[in-house]
Amino acid sequence: MTGRLVVGLGARAGTGAAELAAAVAAALDAAGLDPAEVVVLATVDRRAAEPGVRAFARDAGWRLAAFTVARLAAQPVPGPSGVVAAAVGTPSVAEAAALLAAGPAAGLVLPKRRFRGVTVAVARTGARG
After folding, report:
1. Residue extents of the structural domains in the chain
2. Which of 22, 67, 102, 123 could serve as a FRET partner for 36 with CA atoms 20 to 30 Å apart?
3. Which CATH number fits domain 5-124: 3.30.420.360, 3.30.420.180, 3.40.50.10540, 1.10.10.1590?
4. CobE/GbiG C-terminal domain location, by residue (predicted)?
5. CA 34 to chain centre
6. Do 68 and 45 meet the contact criterion of CB atoms below 8 Å apart?
7. Exposed (0-12), middle (13-18) or buried (19+): which is 82, by Cβ within 10 Å?
């Protein structure tokens, strides 16, 4: 097995820890990924400051990585969104955050998946392609 997993997260403001946990669990399960491999939860800085996101990362035992809109916008992603760009200022939060936190040799193992108000993407560190 190569690398560890990074969960990228986009969510509506004020989303609670339980909703975030349910969405991430559903995404990992659908992709056949082991939650024990996840080491980082990554998102946009303003979302990382929210109590629900902080509680979810803490309860899961994952490091929380936060990125500015500018850093996220500079990260190429396979699924950019004009709607997200208009609302947030970057065409991707979940995919871009996952890839940035996973490092330069990262690859997406789960492109963005949407769940009621939550978007999840997963990258593997050390992956190529």
Report:
1. 5-124
2. 67
3. 3.30.420.180
4. 5-123
5. 15
6. yes
7. exposed
Statement: the pTM of the whole predicted model exceeds 0.85: yes
Residue type, 47: R
- Quote the tokens at residue 31: 């992709």
Note whether 121 and 108 are within 8 A (CB): yes
DSSP state of 97: H
pLDDT one-digit tens code per residue, 32-52: 999 999 999 999 999 999 999
Single-letter amino acid code for the residue at 23:
A
The SS3 of residue 95 is helix
Whether the CB-CB separation of 124 and 31 falls below 8 Å is answered with no
| Terminal Cα-to-Cα distance of the chain (whole angstroms) | 15
